[in-house]
Amino acid sequence: MGLRATRATILLFLFFLSSPLPSSTVIAGGSGEDYVRPLPRKTLSLPSKPKRSSDPQQVHISLAGTQHMRITWVSDDEFSRSIVEYGTSPGEYTSSSQGESAFYKYLLYSSGKINHVVIGPLESSTTYFYRCGGQGPEFQFMTPPSEFPVTFSVVGDLGQTGWTKSTLDHISQCKYDVHLLPGDLSYADYQQHLWDSFGALVQPLASSRPWMVTEGNHEKESIVFFKSGFQAYNARWKMPYEECGSTSNLYYSFEVAGVHIIMLGSYSDYDENSDQYAWLKTDLARLDRERTPWLLVLLHVPWYNSNWAHQGEGKSMMAAMEPLLYAAGVDIFIAGHVHAYERMDRVYNGGLDPCGPLHITIGDGGNREGLAHRFNHPKPEWSVYREASFGHGELKIVNSTHAIWSWHRNDDDESVKSDEVWINSLASTGCIHENRPEYRKILMSP
Length: 446
Ligand SMILES: *[C@@H]1O[C@H](CO)[C@@H](O)[C@H](O)[C@H]1NC(C)=O
Ligand SMILES: [Fe+2]
What we know:
It comes from Musa acuminata subsp. malaccensis (Wild banana). This protein is an alpha+beta fold.
């Protein structure tokens, strides 16, 4: 047996070792005893190749600083150009921008050419028509508004199963401006072709509204003895970290209308001496609550969670960063990771606090691992609504003082609004500590 064959055998063995186990049988339970839950669905078998190899594939867009959008796509043709032509009428491209491209290799896999092109300045609340690489089909997107109201669709732990498909269908029925994804996109782990099929699956949505994502554990390539990191994620889902002064694609912030949104990295260092901590502090110190009265934080691993799944995993990050975020006055804190929905009250330091953020766990996009059915009993006082079902969230920020959050259960292909709550901004309830010296000190200390 040659060296090559031996290596292939070892690789196959490692692939087998690190393959996720199929989830066990699902028993209906959780909080809503009367609701009989459907079984998990299989991973979709998706075509990963388009008709013509030179056509753009896996097109998705993301906000890239004020009035700019980053267009990302993959091309099989290495000579195709990283150019986007665009305009406000179909087929009439009055502007164009040039960008960058890169390939990556992982074990035996070589990616297509991954293109990133930033376009703008763009008008707000405007439909743009665009074409990637100077050829192929026309796409269109709508830019978010510059003022309230603004609507976000929210869901984590998407994966690519039959449930993912129906969750995406429900999201597409909602009238939203920006999609927020708190980690676990493709469930590729190290299996790179799953990034390609995920890109194809989400293209209809992600090419028409900005998708803003942060990393989860399934973004990480993890095979023992091999390079581990976020190689595919960073190459394919480039977020506007440079635009906000972050040095890592794993954490960044951006603004939409009057909302400042911080995407934290659960899988990046977060202690007081870390780059992420230093960046977060700088970002919070720059906040202007007159301009952006709402402050949102998203990350993968929840800090408050009454589900059995992933209990306590967010503890050390919470210990490091919660005081800082509390001092800044975070309105809403959204996590994924736990495959269930849970809405908490306003909390800080482990208990109820009217000036703490309202926490939400929404890792229920429809991934292959199924749902997390078991919750702690009795229910903690800070847990308001919890249910192990797939679904998605919608957050409409109505104005500087009011927002409405709703959760839509994916009830066997029907979207059913199952939880809804009005939220007042901390700016309107006298909780912004900016001018209180003890909190100012936490934010401004070196
Ligand atoms: C914000 O919206 C809420 C709900 O529609 C409304 O009751 C409130 O008066 C509005 N506030 C302002 C300042 O417009
Ligand atoms: Fe996760």
